[in-house]
Design a protein that fits this description.
With 463 residues, the protein is mainly β. The protein folds into three domains: 133 residues, Immunoglobulin-like; 191 residues, C8orf32 fold, CATH 3.10.620; 101 residues. The chain has five helices and 37 strands. The strands form nine sheets. Strands 3, 5, 6, 9, 19, 20 and 21 form a seven-stranded antiparallel sheet that branches. Helix 1 packs across helix 4.
C-alpha cells in the first residue's frame, strides 16, 4: 500500500497590535496565575497512520527589567500518544514533538497544550551608562550580522540609522532614537506581503504617511536591522499576547488593551553591563508588557515556525489545520505605567492611522460569543453559523457576516472605521435592537440578496 507524508508548517502571522499614540516609558506591572490552554486541531481526510505535532515551549527568563516564569508544561491528545520528544536548538529554545497514532479515518485530532506562568515588569530607574557604540566582546556574531529578513547591510537602512545616532553618546540614546523613528515613520500593514526589513522600510501604506509599513514582525525586523547596522547587538523574540485586559489613556478616550490572544514579535538588545534587555518596536522601550509571553529567541525569524505538523497516511489521504482555540485564563493584571505622547517622536505617520489600525489583528470568528466590553478590531469575519452579540462599544475595519451567521447589536454600538466596508452575505442575519447602533462613518454597506435585517426597540444604522 502506498504511503503519503505531508508536512504542514503553520506560519501563524505576527500581525497583532499596532502602534499606540502613546508609548509606555516607565513604571511597573505584574500578571500572576496565567493558566495557559491552547488547542490545535487537524481534520483528517482518509486514513491516518500517524500525526506528528511540534511547537516551541514558552520559556522562563529573568532580564533586568522583566521576567517570565513558566511551569507545568504539557501536551495532550484526544488519541493515543506514541512518543514525546524534547529538543533544544543552538539558542536555548526548546521544541516539543508529540506523535499520535491509532487515529480513526476522517477524524479531527486535537492537541491541547497547557502550562502555568507569571510575568513581572519594573523599569523604574532604568538608566544604564553603557557607551555608544558599545563593546561587542563575547557577543555571538550572528546578533551583529545581516540575515535573511534582517538586512542590516542595506545601504539605505544603514545610512538612516547612522544619521539618527550621529550625536548619541550612550546606548540608551541610540536605541531610543531608532525606536522612536521606527514607531513614528512606519505605518501598520498586514496584507500578506513581505515583512523583511528592506520591504518594510521602502513600502509606505497609501494614505497613512510615513516612509514604510509592516506588521509587528516587520517592525521588529526593521528595528533589529537598524540596530545591527550601527553595531548594537540585537535579536528576534517570538511569543504570544494573551488575554489580560488593561487600559491606556489616549486623546481618543481610554483604549482597552490585552483583550485578545495572538502571536506577536518583539526584540532584545544586548547591553554590556546588563545583558539582554527586551523591547517592543510598536509600543514600549526596554521591556515586554505583562500580557506577552515568549517562546523563542533567534537571530532571524525565517526558519522558525511556531507550530508545525507532519502527517503520514494512505495514498490519497490528507489533512488540514483548523482554527486555534485559545482558552488561556489569567489572574489580576496591575500596572502603573507612565506614558509619553506619540507626537513627541516627530514622526510622519498620521497619528489617527497609528491609533485605529488593527490593534488586535484580523479576526475569523466561528463560535458564538458576546462582546460585552469596549474593544477595537482589525478586519472581522463571522462564519460557520456563529452568533455574535454586541452589547458594548466596539470598533472595526472591514466587517463580514458569512455562512448563515448572525450579528446582533443589542444596546451596544459597532463603529466601522472610515473608508471600510460592512457586508452581510445571503442567508445571514443582522439584528439591531434596544437602541443598538451600527455606525458607518465614511464607509459603505454591502448587503447581498437574501440577507435578513431586523430592527427592534430603537435600533438602527447611522451613516
Amino acid at each position: 500500500m502506498k504511503k503519503i507524508i505531508y508536512l504542514l508548517i503553520i506560519f501563524l502571522p505576527y500581525y497583532t497590535f499596532t502602534q499606540h499614540n502613546k508609548w509606555i516609558y516607565n513604571g511597573s506591572a505584574s500578571l500572576n496565575n496565567i493558566a495557559g490552554k491552547e488547542i490545535n486541531k487537524y481534520k483528517i481526510t482518509g486514513t491516518c497512520y500517524s500525526l506528528e505535532f511540534s511547537r516551541w515551549i514558552y520559556k522562563s527568563y529573568n532580564n533586568v527589567n522583566d521576567s517570565q516564569a513558566v511551569s507545568g508544561y504539557n501536551i495532550a491528545c484526544n488519541y493515543d500518544i506514541q512518543s514525546t520528544e524534547y529538543n533544544f536548538d543552538a539558542y536555548g529554545n526548546m521544541k516539543i514533538t508529540v506523535t499520535a497514532h491509532n487515529i480513526p479515518a476522517n477524524a479531527t485530532v486535537k492537541f491541547t497544550t497547557t502550562y502555568n506562568a507569571s510575568t513581572a515588569i519594573d523599569i523604574n530607574g532604568f538608566n544604564p551608562g553603557d557607551l555608544f557604540p558599545p563593546s561587542t566582546q563575547g557577543v555571538a556574531q550572528e546578533y551583529l550580522q545581516p540575515s535573511t529578513k534582517i538586512q542590516s547591510n542595506d545601504a539605505t537602512i544603514k545610512s538612516k540609522a547612522e544619521e539618527l545616532t550621529a550625536n548619541c553618546a550612550l546606548m540608551t540614546e541610540a536605541v531610543d532614537t531608532i525606536a522612536k523613528w521606527v514607531d513614528g515613520n512606519i505605518a501598520y500593514r498586514d496584507d500578506g506581503n513581505s515583512q523583511d526589513a528592506v520591504y518594510v522600510f521602502t513600502h509606505p501604506l497609501s494614505g497613512a504617511g510615513g516612509v514604510g509599513s509592516g506588521n509587528c514582525e516587520g517592525f521588529t525586523n526593521l528595528m533589529i536591522a537598524m540596530l545591527r547596522s550601527v553595531v548594537i547587538p540585537s535579536r528576534f523574540t517570538g511569543g504570544r499576547k494573551i488575554k489580560a485586559p488593561y487600559t491606556m489613556p489616549t486623546k481618543y478616550g481610554t483604549l482597552p488593551l490585552g483583550t485578545k490572544e495572538a502571536l506577536h514579535a518583539t526584540y532584545e538588545v544586548y547591553y554590556p553591563t546588563l545583558g539582554w534587555i527586551s523591547g517592543d518596536a510598536q509600543s514600549n522601550l526596554h521591556f515586554n508588557t505583562q500580557d506577552f509571553i515568549s517562546f523563542y529567541i533567534c537571530p532571524d525569524p525565517s526558519d522558525y515556525d511556531p507550530i508545525s505538523a507532519l502527517f503520514t497516511g494512505s495514498h490519497g489521504s490528507s489533512f488540514e489545520s483548523l482554527a486555534e482555540d485559545i482558552q488561556t485564563t489569567t489572574g489580576n493584571t496591575e500596572n502603573n505605567y507612565v506614558y509619553k505622547d506619540f507626537s513627541d517622536f516627530g514622526g510622519t505617520v498620521t497619528e489617527q492611522q497609528n491609533m485605529v489600525a488593527a490593534y488586535v489583528g484580523d479576526e475569523i470568528i466561528q463560535s458564538n460569543d458576546t462582546w460585552d466590553s469596549p474593544d477595537a478590531y482589525g478586519s472581522v469575519q463571522i462564519s460557520g453559523g456563529a452568533t455574535i452579540t454586541v452589547t458594548s462599544q466596539v470598533s472595526a475595519r472591514n466587517f463580514k457576516v458569512l455562512d448563515n451567521s448572525i450579528l446582533i447589536i443589542d444596546g451596544g454600538q459597532l463603529n466601522l472605521d472610515p473608508g471600510f466596508t460592512f457586508s452581510v452575505e445571503n442567508g445571514c442575519k443582522l439584528i439591531i435592537r434596544n437602541n443598538g447602533v451600527l455606525s458607518i462613518d465614511g464607509g459603505s454597506i454591502d448587503i447581498k440578496k437574501g440577507a435578513i435585517f431586523e430592527f427592534y426597540n430603537g435600533g438602527g444604522i447611522l451613516k
